[in-house]
Amino acid sequence: MSKYKIIYDREACIGSFACAAAASDFWVYNEDGKADFKGATYNALTKRWELIIDEEDHDDNQAAAEVCPVFAIVIEKLPDTDDKTPHMGDWKKEPTTPPSDDLHFTEE
Ligand code: SF4
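Above: the input record for the complex with iron/sulfur cluster. Below: its predicted structure, written as tokens.
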């Protein structure tokens, strides 16, 4: 099952609440006129709210992201756990093969 990371830039939110119409389980009205992202935690480094969701919650949140007029909601697919595709940082885990001494370059 795929997982996704939702990143919410609350500073950019203009309070249109289109997101709440698309995914009311996650996006709710706050008295300050901006949307709150239920269950999300604040990342002080990026100054964004973040939440990991399962695939079953992807479509509603994707709809929320697509209707947001200021693109405050970004969704990133996380690597599948059985995904064999190399990812950033994998080079640290596996020993690398040194270049072959048999390589020769010729000038024409
Ligand atoms: S749709 Fe975007 S701008 Fe509108 S309330 Fe939701 S996050 Fe804020």
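Notes for the reader.
The chain has a mean pLDDT of 87.
The pocket of iron/sulfur cluster is lined by residues 13-19, 27, 35, 67-70, 72-73 (CB under 6 Å).
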